[in-house]
Amino acid sequence: MTESARTKDGRSKKRPGPQHQRVVIVEAAVALFSIHGSARVSIAQICRRADIGRQTFYRCFDDKDALIRHIYQFAVNQQIEDGLRLLQNQHPGVNFLPDLVDQIINRILDYYPYAQFLYSDAVDRQSVAYQVIDESLERTAAIIQQWFAANGLGMPPSLYLKGVMSGITWMVQYAIAAGAAAELIGEVKRSSVLMLESVLHVAERGRPGQ
């Protein structure tokens, strides 16, 4: 989608619409964040890198924090939540975890540079990235609990589920920081499956009537 603008002689020309401009801003921001960290990069620097004006930036994002949240949502969180929605068609006793883990981690790796800076920023508990990841873990735990309830399984505490997902997140972060070598990614996937299998085991033990 494009917007109309006027040249100096009054003729109408097309300029990129907000959707395209958001993509340009995100790419410029990630390039800078990956080198300097988001805290050390200003909106002015992002605008220069993206070759846009501040007005264009604020037409797309309220502030830098909103930009970071947007990046995390589509680069990491959306991939996790989309993958977990596959749970709706799965039943206990079916060995679906390897495929589920494979899909989710592959989705995140598709946005390798984005995830790299987000996980790096999240080390700081005061950062937006840390807050966004914590909120994501809460939503992820809720999605898993809904699946347990729909299948008549025991309900592991939200904190326990967040701990498991934090462990998986840390492993993915470690693999990305180490260069995302195929062998290491494979180890992360196998370890993630083992952790999720332990969650299912806990849920089975807590099944009502057991």
- Low-pLDDT residue intervals, each spanning 5 or more residues: 1-5
- Separate helix tally: 9
Structural classification: mainly alpha
Helical amount: 55-70%
Major sheet attributes: 2 strands, antiparallel
H/E element order:
EEHHHHHHHHH
Q: What is the alpha-carbon Rg in Å?
A: 21 Å
- Can you give the mean pLDDT? 83
Terminal-residue CA separation: 57 Å
Structure summary, number of beta strands: 2
Major sheet: arrangement of strands = 1-2
Global morphology: elongated
> In what range is the share of β-strand residues?
under 5%
What does this structure look like?
With 210 residues, the chain is mainly alpha-helical. Helices cover 69% and strands 5% of the residues. It has 9 helices and 2 strands, in the order E-E-H-H-H-H-H-H-H-H-H. It has helices spanning 18-36, 43-50, 54-60, 64-84, 97-109, 112-121, 128-150, 158-177, 182-205; strands at residues 2-6, 12-16. It has a two-stranded antiparallel ribbon. A hairpin with a 5-residue loop joins strand 1 and strand 2. Helix 1 crosses helix 2, helix 1 packs across helix 3 and helix 5 (97-109) crosses helix 9. The longest helix has 24 residues, at 182-205. Mean pLDDT is 83; it is low at 1-5.
